[in-house]
Amino acid sequence: MKRLAFLVLGMALFSAQAQEVPALYVGADLKLGEKLIADNKCEACHQQKVGGNGSAIYRPTGRVNSLGALRGQVEACNQMLNIGLFPDEVTSVSAVLNRDHYRFK
């Protein structure tokens, strides 16, 4: 009986976590996104643009106001700076930014 309760609880937790990930980012590799952000020095670039720690660049009510706009902005940075990210990498970076800064559903 305890095993069944544990299994049901585990399934409920997994289901709740799966629902928290926006459909656009299902399957995104968050560890890869974190690594790409660090490797490409995204925060340093943002600090140069807006000053301080660079977090002022994240404004959910501004130009980036949806999941699609966030992914589009990451792709724009990718192209402008000639970073060379593949589409799945852009999605991974976007998913990390959404998790850490935007929290769009």
Give a quick set of tags describing it.
105 residues
Quick summary:
The protein is mainly alpha-helical and 105 residues long. 65% of the residues lie in helices and 0% in strands. The chain has helices spanning 2-20, 30-39, 42-50, 67-80, 87-102.
Radius of gyration: 17 Å
Largest sheet: none
- Average of pLDDT: 83
Structural class: mainly alpha
* Alpha carbon gap, first and last residue: 36 Å
DSSP summary: helix tally: 5
Number of strands: 0
Number of domains: 1
User: How much β-strand is present in the residues?
Assistant: under 5%
H/E element string? HHHHH
Descriptive report:
There is one protein chain. With 105 residues, the protein is an all-alpha fold. It has one domain. The chain is built from 5 helices and no strands. α2 (30-39) crosses α5. The chain is globular and about 30 Å long. It starts with a helix and ends with a helix.
What is this structure's SSE topology?
Elements: H1 2-20, H2 30-39, H3 42-50, H4 67-80, H5 87-102
Helix pairs in contact: 2-5, 4-5
